Amino acid sequence: MLRKKITLRALAMALVLVLCALALAGCSATNPNATVLLVGDIKVGMTKYYSLYNSYKSMYSSYGIYDISTAKQFQAFQDLVFNYLVESYLPLYWAKQNGVTLTAEEEAQVQADFEKELNGYLDGYKADVEESVTDEEAIRKEELRLFKKDLRGGGWTYKEYTDLMLENIRGSAIAKKFMEGIYAERVSVTDDDVKAHYDELLAEQRETYAETPEQYYTDYLAYKDSGAQQPLVAPEGYRFVKHILVKSAEKDETKDVDAIVAEIQAKIEAGEDFNELMKEYTEDVDANGDPNYPDGYLISAATVDKYDDAFAVAAMALKSVGDVSVPVESTYGYHIILYAGDVSTEPLVYDDVKEAMKETMINEAKAAVYNELLEQWEADTKIVKYYNRVSAVR
């Protein structure tokens, strides 16, 4: 998978697109931040809704499951957005109900965070400043002018938008302070709790992985991708492989795939380092730059179905650590695969995972408290969703 890097300019342009699209969606040009949701006395504006709606839309569309073809499906998607916003603002509403305020030091941090966020937006306009402008102060002045111009195009004044930015940052700080106070009172994990959990989880995973070895693959990816609990033990048969991918020529008729593959093979046979060649040649960006996967791709006989058939068969056919395959053609192109290493079946040492496990347990306990409070708060808070005001957003 190719991972796109988000630049400061992209962030600034995303803001502009949101503001311009709001006008196209039918929002009042004089009030693009019309209230679309009430959480108690907190008014949530169209900008928040529109931005979140399109984030969800993009995600669902990438999986081919964005479907609002019926009124029922459309409202279900609207509720997905509304409910996320409700859950985001409930802690702030109840923080204010409980009289939570910021200290002078905390307010100073809010101002610093605001300046950092604003400067990030302005930095996104640097490429649009004329090259003849070289003085830093003059450059920043021009960036600010361009930013204000885009805001006006979306129906905002500079003060309206920056006031909203500051309000959002301050609100987040108040809600965070409120929740941290609750967690301090209600969440406690001792070293004895951690050791007991380690022993219980180790026994459970040994039994599970013996019966269903592919579950280790699922748990490992959850750990790497989502920060879930690291598996404490692995079943027999798992290995790590790395590969150099040369994609098929497709539309690029000038690309000589055979020559590139032959060149890589010759360098491998000459003893050049596979990892260095991977950095130079592979067209699988994840395999070459993802810090979460320094060891390569995880595979076993139980998980060959997770990969392209040709790749998986070749990866599992390698006999010894350090072996390199001949070029293997798959639906992606040509792979040269390295058997990078075996996954140890020895359990992780308790002292090595104690702190990470404790942090995971604390986070899980916080999540349980948070979800319990959300249910209670939602029942005790007046919530109004203005479906008619967001009907044009789809």
Describe this structure in words.
This protein has 394 residues and is an alpha+beta fold. Residues 1-30 have low confidence and may be disordered. A four-stranded antiparallel sheet has the order 4-3-6-5, with helices on both faces. A three-stranded antiparallel sheet has the order 2-1-7. It folds into two domains: 8-185 and 381-389, no CATH class; 237-344, Chitinase A, domain 3. The protein starts with 7 loop residues before the first helix and ends in a 9-residue tail after the last strand. The chain contains 13 helices and seven strands. It is globular.
SSE order and pairing:
Elements: H1 8-24, E1 35-39, E2 42-45, H2 46-62, H3 71-97, H4 104-123, H5 136-153, H6 158-186, H7 191-211, H8 214-226, E3 239-247, H9 257-269, H10 274-281, H11 285-289, E4 297-299, H12 309-317, E5 328-329, E6 333-342, H13 350-380, E7 383-385
Antiparallel strand pairs: 1-2, 1-7, 3-4, 3-6, 5-6
Helix pairs in contact: 1-4, 1-5, 2-3, 3-6, 4-6, 7-13
Question: What radius of gyration results from the CA coordinates?
Answer: 27 Å
What's the structural domain tally? 2
- The rounded distance between the terminal residues' Cα atoms is 28 Å
Spans of at least 5 consecutive residues whose pLDDT stays below 50 are 1-30
Counting H and I runs of at least 4 residues, what is the number of helices?
13
Strand order of the largest sheet: 4-3-6-5
What percentage of residues falls in helices of 4 or more residues? 55-70%
**Can you give the mean pLDDT?**
89
**Broad shape:** globular
- The count of strands amounts to 7
Question: What proportion of the residues form beta strands (DSSP E)?
Answer: 5-15%
Secondary-structure content class: alpha+beta
List the secondary-structure elements in sequence, H or E.
HEEHHHHHHHEHHHEHEEHE
Largest sheet: 4 strands, antiparallel
